[in-house]
């Protein structure tokens, strides 16, 4: 789910990366692994991601209506992942052809834009799910009117538009350029504008990843504290387990896909900007390129969230695999959540506005 960069330095020698530009002529990198790792990993992610997310969208459209707020967020998350994986065949060809882009500049800009649009929309949709679960578990009686499906739909629309608006400058930075017999599709920008791109990229990362990630950590920390307190009633165990599974899956997606990508990308950009020593550039360059497929893998890991946290989703999926006839749509069932009692910080209750996916 990521892209090739236009570096500030050129690697020379028989195995140099043609996507780099000149700073240190004596710095050589062997990047043959990239022309195998990226096409293969993107091809696998395309097949798995398209199959899993297309099935999810079909189930949500035809077998899981009406939606609750959580289902609304998950549908938009699956839609974002599907739009991204549809762009992967062009990147598979690009890296298999050893960084040669046979298409026009407009498609290059769109493919690079689509990567970051999906990346940050996914981050924000996961954050919406986290905040929604936190409010439902810790403050359900206070926020009943704020967790309705219609409001969730409007919030998802706002996420699409805000992320797209923030990434508009990326369309101007990204470009193609000839280099010998090949045409490069740069992920960043021209070398002379790279310092401006780093400032833009850092601001976007802080706004669309740093802040949502901190919000998610705070929400799940408060949720975990509430869920681990002793509560009466045997019927509470399934709802508590479902919420804990949500915490585990979302944090796993962040830890595996988003955090390594943003850390290594930041170090990589800084090393290029500061013209670090060749051995430093070599190590950072390799680590960053190895972590790039992990960012794409969130398109395959997100469906695990639906499978582990949605009882209705699992039932419909089992029924589909068995060839059963679809059931008539029913109103969203209630989800046991945690609310604030009069004499303690939280207790179990039910809110009819939520839980269609959870049950």
TrEMBL record:
Q: Name one GO cellular component term.
A: plasma membrane
What Pfam families is this protein classified in?
Answer: 7tm_1
Similarity comment: family membership: Belongs to the G-protein coupled receptor 1 family.
One of the entry's Gene Ontology molecular-function terms is: G protein-coupled UTP receptor activity
Write down what this protein is called. Answer: P2Y purinoceptor 4
Q: Which domain of life is it from?
A: Eukaryota
> Polar residues compositional bias: what residue ranges?
1-10
Where in or outside the cell? Cell membrane
Bilayer topology reads:
Multi-pass membrane protein
Q: Where is the G-protein coupled receptors family 1 profile domain?
A: 52-306
PROSITE patterns tied to this protein: G_PROTEIN_RECEP_F1_1, G_PROTEIN_RECEP_F1_2
Give the principal location in a single coarse category: membrane
Tell me which species this is from: Balaenoptera musculus (Blue whale)
Start and end residues of each stretch annotated as Disordered = 1-20
- Keyword annotations: Cell membrane, Disulfide bond, G-protein coupled receptor, Membrane, Receptor, Transducer, Transmembrane, Transmembrane helix
Tell me which Gene Ontology terms the entry assigns under biological process. Answer: cellular response to prostaglandin E stimulus; transepithelial chloride transport
Record-annotated membrane-spanning stretches = 40-61, 73-95, 115-135, 151-172, 197-223, 244-263
């Amino acid at each position: 789910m990521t892209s090739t960069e236009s570096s500030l330095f050129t690697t020379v020698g028989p195995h140099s990366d043609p996507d780099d530009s000149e700073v240190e002529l004596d710095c050589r990198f062997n990047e043959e692994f990239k022309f195998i790792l990226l096409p293969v990993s993107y091809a696998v992610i395309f097949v798995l991601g398209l199959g899993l997310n297309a099935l999810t969208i079909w189930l949500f459209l035809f077998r899981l209506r009406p939606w609750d707020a959580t289902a609304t967020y998950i549908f938009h998350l699956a839609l974002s992942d599907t739009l991204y994986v549809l762009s992967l065949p062009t990147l598979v060809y690009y890296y298999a052809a050893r960084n040669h882009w046979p298409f026009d500049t407009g498609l290059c800009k769109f493919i690079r834009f689509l990567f970051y649009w999906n990346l940050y929309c996914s981050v924000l949709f996961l954050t919406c799910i986290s905040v929604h679960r936190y409010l439902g578990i810790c403050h359900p009686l206070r926020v009943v009117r704020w967790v309705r499906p219609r409001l969730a739909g409007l919030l998802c629309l706002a996420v699409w538009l805000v992320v797209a608006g923030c990434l508009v400058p990326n369309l101007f930075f990204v470009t193609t350029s000839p280099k010998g017999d090949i045409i490069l599709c740069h992920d960043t920008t021209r070398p002379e504008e790279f310092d401006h791109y780093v400032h833009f990229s850092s601001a976007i990362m802080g706004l669309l990843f740093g802040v949502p990630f901190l919000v998610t950590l705070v929400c799940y920390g408060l949720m975990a504290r509430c869920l681990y307190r002793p509560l009466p009633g045997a019927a509470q165990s399934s709802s508590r387990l479902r919420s804990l599974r949500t915490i585990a899956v979302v944090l796993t997606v962040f830890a595996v896909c988003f955090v390594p990508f943003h850390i290594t990308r930041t170090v990589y950009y800084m090393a290029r900007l500061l013209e670090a020593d060749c051995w430093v550039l070599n190590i950072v360059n390799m680590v960053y390129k190895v972590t790039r497929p992990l960012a794409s893998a969130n398109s395959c890991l997100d469906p695990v969230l639906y499978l582990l946290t949605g009882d209705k989703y699992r039932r419909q999926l089992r029924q589909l695999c068995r060839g059963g006839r679809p059931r008539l749509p029913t109103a969203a069932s209630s989800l046991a959540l945690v609310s604030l009692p009069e004499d303690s910080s939280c207790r179990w209750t039910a809110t009819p506005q939520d839980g269609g996916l959870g049950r």
